[in-house]
């Protein structure tokens, strides 16, 4: 399928869509990166290749965007959803890691969203991963805000030793849930408030955070409410899912992500039919 790609005029980002409207599915996709914040041009191109109108942009750290993932306003996604919704029949959010966390929160309160694809997601809101306006990481603050108010969050247990070179952060997240068990209920993402489709994709060897456990928690909460939810997993895959047609992602902070390229690709291949289904792509 021939695609048309164009830079966004007002932010660092890209539109990618079928060149011939007859190949379009009518689905608009907002696809964002994780904590790197980078423009997901490659993933947007892959999704547009099955007929979606895909939009991606640098969602923090650029002019006109929040400075980092520190009480980041969920309303900062409104403009992108607002561009997709009028020209598409459906709006799907595709996020990974921190943007998956954000999108599950966002979808719970925005009826314009029809589905969420959450890769390596979280079931709770976490403390900020970026310094605040004063350049400091402590005291801890929420990653997210809504209507000017910080959302409840699970803090990080600073007594957990981060080990490995590069470091593995998975034990920090797992231990923090136990240490701050009294904060978990308030910080749990209210996924039962989103009535659309949720697709969860998580690897069993994720060393950034225990994404598979997190995804299962989301699945269990939504299933209890009878809401459409699908979980795709692979025991040997890590934090970075590689979809068919994608290369290996480069850059980002130095950390262990787990998995191997073959396993990460295998998970992407397992998830691909479900992603196509959510996007309304024709069977092939």
UniProtKB/TrEMBL annotation:
InterPro entries: AB_hydrolase_fold (IPR029058), BAAT_C (IPR014940)
Any GO MF annotation of the entry: fatty acyl-CoA hydrolase activity
Domain of life: Bacteria
Record flagged with keyword Transcription regulation: no
GO biological process assignments: acyl-CoA metabolic process; fatty acid metabolic process
Xref: Pfam families: BAAT_C
Organism: Humibacillus xanthopallidus
Domain BAAT/Acyl-CoA thioester hydrolase C-terminal as annotated: residue spans: 86-244
Keywords for this protein: Acyltransferase, Hydrolase, Transferase
Protein name: Bile acid acyltransferase/acyl-CoA thioester hydrolase-like protein
């Amino acid at each position: 399928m021939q695609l048309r790609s164009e830079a966004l005029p007002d932010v660092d980002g890209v539109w990618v869509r079928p060149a011939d409207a007859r190949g379009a599915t009518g689905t608009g996709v907002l696809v964002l990166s994780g904590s790197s914040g980078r423009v997901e041009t490659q993933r947007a191109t892959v999704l547009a290749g099955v007929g979606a109108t895909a939009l991606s942009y640098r969602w923090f750290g650029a002019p006109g965007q929040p400075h980092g993932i520190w009480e980041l306003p969920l309303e900062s996604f409104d403009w992108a959803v607002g561009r997709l919704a009028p020209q598409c029949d459906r709006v799907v959010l595709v996020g990974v890691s921190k943007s998956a966390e954000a999108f599950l929160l966002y979808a719970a309160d925005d009826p314009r969203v029809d589905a969420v694809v959450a890769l390596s997601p979280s079931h709770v809101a976490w403390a900020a991963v970026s310094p605040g306006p004063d350049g400091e990481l402590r005291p801890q603050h929420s990653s997210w805000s809504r209507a000017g108010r910080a959302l409840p969050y699970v803090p990080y247990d600073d007594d957990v030793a981060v080990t490995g070179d590069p470091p593995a952060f998975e034990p920090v997240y797992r231990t923090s849930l136990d240490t701050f068990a009294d904060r978990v209920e308030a910080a749990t993402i209210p996924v039962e408030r989103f009535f659309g489709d949720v697709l969860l994709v998580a690897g069993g060897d994720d060393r950034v955070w225990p994404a598979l456990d997190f995804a299962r928690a989301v699945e269990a909460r939504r299933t209890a409410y009878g809401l459409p939810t699908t979980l795709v997993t692979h025991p040997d895959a890590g934090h970075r899912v590689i979809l068919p047609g994608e290369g290996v992602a480069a850059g980002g902070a130095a950390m262990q992500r787990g998995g191997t390229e073959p396993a990460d690709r295998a998970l992407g291949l397992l998830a691909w039919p479900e992603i196509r289904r959510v996007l309304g792509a024709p069977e092939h």
